[in-house]
């Protein structure tokens, strides 16, 4: 089996590595080849998803697709809605046409909901919170309409990402706290964080099982970024007092829904996921802290 992963950043590279570990032949594709993909030895092809001919060319010869391309900076997307729609909604249309019936798994987002519920399941009504959510919802609908698509909505993905252009929340906090600096994070923004390895494991299991439709993946704990950052501090051996509370509306998270949380009513019935229960934030931190500490020491 040969699988194309559209998006070669932090999550795309993790999915590609998981595919390879399970004897699937992966190739990642994106506009630029980032260090995260090349460092793992994944084959890469240049692709601008806004180009229909380029999509047809890169899909030729593959058996299935995973779509996890950007832009994903929600603040940037809010300021550039047309470019966001072109990449996500337009790109999905081009990939759907190029796939021509091949299985396509789209990594989508909790931002398709407005955050008025504490947590959202697969049957809850969508109401996108921002430009990113609107573009992702349009991409979902396009790929699901093919009859061969699965939209996997994931909550806040985290891991250790030292070479990322825009490192995720765990990496940002751990680095600042290990260096003795403080972090300002909202105490009124709720998430169900999920470890990147768990997202990759679910993605590959669902792709190989041929699942279609809609599915949610959130971590097992619902907590604020402030509470999470304090637990990251404890995990890396830093003073939790270095974590400072900041209202969501006053910082970088103003365009996010108050409740960016997901749960699933469908996942418990899928046998391929039975042994893939997502880790809680403390288990995830334990798995990442040694790696993070070693990298920070080496950087010094």
TrEMBL record:
Pfam families: RmlD_sub_bind
InterPro entries listed in its UniProt record: NAD(P)-bd_dom_sf, RmlD-like-bd
Domain RmlD-like substrate binding: 1-266
Recorded superkingdom: Bacteria
Protein name: dTDP-4-dehydrorhamnose reductase
């Amino acid at each position: 089996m040969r699988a194309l992963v559209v998006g070669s950043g932090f999550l795309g590279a993790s999915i590609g590595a998981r595919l390879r570990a399970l004897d699937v032949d992966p190739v990642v594709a994106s506009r630029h080849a980032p260090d995260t993909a090349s460092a793992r030895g994944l084959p890469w092809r240049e692709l601008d998803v806004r180009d229909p001919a380029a999509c047809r060319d890169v899909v030729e010869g593959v058996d299935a697709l995973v779509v996890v391309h950007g832009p994903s900076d929600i603040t940037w997307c809010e300021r550039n809605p047309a470019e966001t729609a072109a990449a996500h909604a337009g790109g999905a249309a081009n990939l759907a046409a190029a796939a021509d019936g091949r299985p396509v798994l789209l990594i989508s987002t909790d931002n398709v909901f407005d955050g008025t519920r504490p947590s959202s399941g697969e049957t809850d009504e969508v109401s996108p919170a921002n430009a990113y959510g609107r573009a992702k919802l349009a991409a979902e609908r396009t790929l699901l309409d093919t009859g061969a698509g699965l939209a996997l909505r994931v909550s806040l993905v985290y891991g250790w990402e030292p070479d990322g252009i825009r490192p995720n929340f765990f990496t940002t906090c751990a680095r600042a706290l290990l260096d003795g600096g403080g972090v300002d994070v909202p105490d009124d923004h709720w998430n169900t964080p999920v470890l990147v390895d768990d997202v990759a494991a679910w993605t590959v299991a669902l792709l190989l099982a041929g699942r279609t439709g809609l599915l949610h993946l959130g971590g097992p704990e619902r907590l604020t970024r402030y509470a999470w950052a304090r637990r990251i501090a404890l995990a890396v051996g830093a003073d939790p007092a270095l974590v400072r509370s900041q209202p969501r509306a006053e910082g970088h998270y103003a365009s996010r829904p108050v409740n960016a949380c997901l749960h699933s009513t469908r996942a418990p019935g899928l046998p391929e996921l039975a042994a893939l229960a997502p880790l809680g934030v403390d288990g995830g931190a334990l798995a990442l802290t040694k790696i993070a500490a070693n990298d920070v020491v080496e950087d010094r």
